[in-house]
Design a protein that fits this description.
The protein has 281 residues and is α/β, with parallel strands linked by helices. It contains ten helices and seven strands. A seven-stranded mixed sheet has the order 3-2-1-4-5-7-6, sandwiched between helices. Strand 6 and strand 7 form a beta hairpin. Helix 1 packs across helix 2 and helix 1 packs parallel to helix 4. The chain is globular.
Length: 281
């Protein structure tokens, strides 16, 4: 994610595009749920989305998202075509359980695109957590830690097969300290929920001492494989132009589950039956 947050020379242009994505995505999602097909139902759906509060819904709405992007001068970490890949999926899933590794410019948008769903962010940089919550206090963010460094990536990829608790048929997350790739000490909520979509755009992975995304990608694969409910798990990995993201995604999320490749973003659709396989791929 190095040097990816820049001062935009055309902030209004990018703001309008993101606002269109947020408003359009939420309107289409609402129509899909309500079956609205005419201008009257479109108007009613849009109005009702503001006038009928849901006590279970976090206070973040697409109105607050529009205000957020209208007052910022930073551009998105992902390109608009990359963002659209996840937006299209969330339109069909919402409300859903959405887990996001990393926080950044798109965080408010991801939460606003999942109305009445659960959107949870996991971030290791405490300064980023404080800054994000200061700008958008309604987001649900957990501060977590990683036990790896990017410089360990090659060794971990070649050695995990010698650890039985990392193998597909035995791998689990909570308390699994025997597997160096397992996120074994996450907040309880992460383990209790089954996640319909997982976005991996963190932690940092562009210098040797950075945590890298090895644990995030491996843990997302384990979550998807151990899913008990029906339906597939959608996993989005950003920055696959980099060696570690690409190799770990291919190893644990599998090319045969890759459904969309857009620039630096890969979208995988992993069926729960994959947990029965003795290999990840």
């Amino acid at each position: 994610m190095r040097n990816r947050i820049i001062i935009s020379e055309k902030p209004l242009f990018f703001t309008i595009l993101i606002v269109v994505i947020i408003t359009g995505g939420l309107t289409i999602t609402s129509l899909h749920r309500t079956g609205g097909t005419n201008p009257t139902s479109i108007l009613c759906t849009f109005v009702n989305s503001h006038s009928q509060p849901n006590p279970k819904q976090p206070p973040t709405t697409h109105i607050s998202a529009i205000l957020h992007y209208a007052t910022t001068r930073t551009t998105a970490q992902q390109t608009l075509p990359e963002i659209k890949v996840a937006v299209d999926v969330l339109q069909t899933l919402a409300p859903c359980n959405l887990l996001v590794f990393g926080i950044g410019h798109e965080s408010v948008m991801w939460a606003s695109l999942n109305p009445r769903g659960t959107t949870l962010f996991l971030e290791d940089d405490l300064n980023s957590v404080h800054k994000t919550l200061n700008d958008a206090p309604s987001l649900r963010v957990h501060h977590i830690s990683y036990d790896t460094q990017l410089s360990d990536a090659d060794y971990l990829l070649t050695s995990y097969k010698t650890s039985p608790k990392c193998l597909p048929t035995q791998a689990y997350l909570k308390g699994n300290t025997r597997c160096k790739l397992a996120l074994s000490n996450l907040p309880e909520e992460v383990y209790k929920r089954e996640w319909d979509a997982i976005i991996i755009d963190g932690p940092k992975g562009y210098y040797g001492e950075a945590p890298g995304r090895m644990m995030a990608i491996f843990s997302a694969a384990v979550m998807a494989r151990r899913r008990e409910r029906g339906g597939d798990t959608h996993v989005f990995v950003h920055d696959v132009n980099r060696k570690v993201e690409k190799e770990y995604a291919e190893e644990f999320l599998c090319k045969n589950y890759l459904v969309t490749a857009e620039n630096r973003l890969w979208h995988f659709r992993i069926p729960p039956s994959a947990k029965e396989s003795p290999t990840f791929c």
